[in-house]
Specification:
heterodimer; A: 323 residues; two-stranded antiparallel ribbon; B: 292 residues; mainly alpha; ABC transporter involved in vitamin B12 uptake, BtuC; two-stranded antiparallel sheet; globular
Chain lengths: 323, 292
């Protein structure tokens, strides 16, 4: 069992490598990595619910959507958030995501398991319906194009500069969520995931714990939306549709639920397959679907669970040899 | 004044008729989804894919044989076989683990999407029913498309057959017992594994049937799978999971809400559909007519 310290060192090393290697590649890879990082924040926030609290949400794209639409509407209709006021938009995006989660959480938290999945799906569809149909505000099916990225001292239109900004937000989010899941609050969330009744009997207000986790996840979702809007340069119903929520869920499971960084690996694998492989072969979606199916059937712990699987397999074969 | 009133009545009558016929289509998709959930506690996210694949297979049959009538059973049965194989070889081995099973159905939805794109290209198609069904009947000066009446009739027939099977046969009793308490049903000797297989295939059959019939006025195109899926969920949630009568009422409500929502307040029409659904779930997680 690798100690916690070695794991942290490994994550830091990978992050440092990313920060050094990515800017020296071509613009295609830089943009791909930026997208994956921005989306990773959403996937990690979902992992707080799925992996650490045991709440499988199927409507997480709604929070990304709120942050993204807020950014796009402020930028195109009010020319707001394109200078130093970008930081105000960041705060507003987080607050909007958290506020939406605060409303949705009131409805959703009572349910658990598959019912939680269904109700978050319904809530996510509400947001999608508004994005898709409310033409005067959201541009309907066409979405909203953002013509420029913010400029404040540094010019974010420059892809490498923008990559570092998203990278910075990503690292801060990862750190914040890591602290959260390691805190006593995070420990009680794990307790709820394992056995909610016992936590209730011990005197924990489990509803409130789950609700707060839901709101925090919404806030990070909003942040990821703000970054996503400027990364993609367009915000459309595509960003809040059911399949985007499903993507986030599958990325978390693919990487390994309950590990935070697993979701990031999942995001990089999926974005890599989808955007890189699709330029090479027309049947890339078979690979993606196949990877999902194989992961769920044979690797319940996701990519992060591979070392554990190898150890188990070695232990079993070792015992077989001795006999 | 009198004219305006007549136009007004006409609007309501036509919209209601359209809503009911759309509800008939949604019943075909939703009832299967509801039964699958009731028996296996699986949220089948590949259900929209069955609908779409049903439409595509029907197209192929029509292109090769020219028979629309033949396309219906062939499409529905072949998709039922797909569902049966999926249940037996992929969902079953996972045992009782709803989350992983749900995720697995998504993986399949993506695979089906790609397969459909490869086989039937990304073009929009229409399934053309025989000429006899494309006429309109005039009642009280209002034109009613005969095809929509046919959809209602089909849903009624299927609903009646399903109801008879569920209420009057031994098999139906076993299904109902499994919905109520799978463990108990196993305890008294019901083969729930076989029931699951049967229900999953039946659900796929009904969804594909919906695809063939709905393809005539929705069209058949990539992306339809994930457009119809949330609507089917709305039917199941409003109606209550695992309840056939509930699915009928849910389908009717969703069909009407969707039609009137789009006609009366287009900007928030989907919101008016999904917000009540979320509220119902929040108050009663098992749906309006679902059993605890």
């Amino acid at each position: 069992m690798a100690s916690q310290q070695t794991k942290i060192m490994a994550v830091v090393a990978v992050l440092a490598a990313l920060a050094i290697v990515i800017p020296n590649t071509n613009s295609f890879v830089i943009l791909l990595a930026t997208r994956a990082l921005a989306f990773s924040i959403l996937v990690m926030s979902l992992d707080i619910l799925l992996g650490f609290t045991g709440l499988p949400s199927l409507g997480q794209a709604a929070y990304l959507g709120v942050g993204a639409y807020l950014t796009a509407i402020l930028a195109t209709k009010f020319q707001f958030g394109l200078g130093y006021d970008f930081w105000v938009v960041v705060v507003l995006g987080i607050l909007a995501g958290a506020a939406l989660a605060a409303i949705f959480g009131l409805l959703a938290i009572r349910a658990s398991g598959v019912y939680f999945l269904m109700i978050t799906l319904a809530l996510g569809q509400c947001v999608w319906g508004l994005a898709y149909r409310w033409n005067s505000l959201t541009g309907g099916d066409n979405g909203i194009n953002l013509r420029t990225r913010p400029k404040f001292g540094i010019d974010l239109a420059h892809d490498v500069t923008f990559f570092y900004l998203v990278f910075g937000f990503f690292v801060v989010s990862l750190l914040a969520m890591y602290v959260l899941v390691r805190s006593p609050f995070g420990r009680s969330l794990a307790g709820i995931r394992e056995r909610e009744l016992r936590m209730k009997i011990l005197g924990y207000n489990t509803w409130l714990h789950k609700y707060i986790a839901f709101v925090i996840a919404g806030g990070f979702g909003g942040l990821s939306g703000v970054l996503w809007a400027h990364t993609a340069g367009i915000v459309s119903p595509e960003n809040v549709v059911l399949t985007t929520s499903v993507d986030a869920l599958l990325m978390a499971v693919l990487g390994g639920a309950g590990t935070l960084v697993g979701g990031v690996i999942g995001a990089f694998i999926v974005f890599g397959l989808r955007e890189y492989l699709s330029t090479l072969v027309p049947w890339w979606q078979y690979v993606l679907g196949g990877v999902y199916v194989a992961t769920i059937l044979y690797l319940p712990g996701g990519v992060m669970g591979i070392p554990e699987r190898i150890r188990q397999w070695r232990a079993v074969s070792g015992r077989a040899e001795r006999q | 004044m009198r004219d305006e009133e007549a136009v007004n009545t006409q609007f309501w009558v036509i919209q209601t008729f359209n809503g009911v016929s759309y509800g008939a289509l949604l019943f075909l998709v939703g009832s299967g989804l509801s039964l699958i959930f009731g028996v296996m506690r699986i949220v089948n996210l590949a259900h929209g894919s069955y609908f779409l694949l049903g439409g595509y297979v029907a197209l192929s049959v029509i292109w090769t044989t020219g028979s629309w009538l033949l396309a219906i059973p062939v499409a529905a049965s072949s998709i039922a076989l797909v569902g049966l194989l999926m249940e037996r070889f992929f969902l079953r081995p996972l045992g009782f683990d709803p989350l992983r099973q749900v995720l697995l159905t998504v993986g399949f939805a993506f695979l089906f999407q790609q397969a459909a794109l490869d086989i039937w290209t990304g073009n929009n198609f229409n399934i053309n029913p025989p000429d006899a069904l494309t006429k309109s009947i005039v009642v009280g000066g209002i034109y009613f498309p005969l095809y929509r009446a046919f959809m209602i009739a089909t849903a009624l027939t299927i609903g009646l057959i399903l109801w008879l099977v569920m209420e009057k046969t031994r098999m139906g009793a076993a299904v109902r017992a499994t919905v109520d308490d799978a463990q108990m049903a196993r305890g008294v000797g019901v083969d729930t594994s076989r029931i699951s297989m049967f229900i999953f295939a039946l659900g796929a059959f009904l969804a594909a049937l919906g695809g063939v019939i709905g393809g005539a006025f929705l069209g058949i195109y990539p992306g339809l799978d994930f457009e119809i899926l949330p609507l089917a969920f709305a039917v199941v949630i409003i109606g209550g999971m695992g309840s056939l009568g509930g699915a009928a009422i849910g389908a009717l409500l969703v069909g009407l809400a969707d039609n009137f929502g789009k006609a009366l307040f287009p900007e928030i029409s989907y919101f008016t559909l999904y917000a009540p659904m979320a509220l119902i779930l929040a108050v009663k997680p098992t749906g309006l007519f679902g059993r605890e």
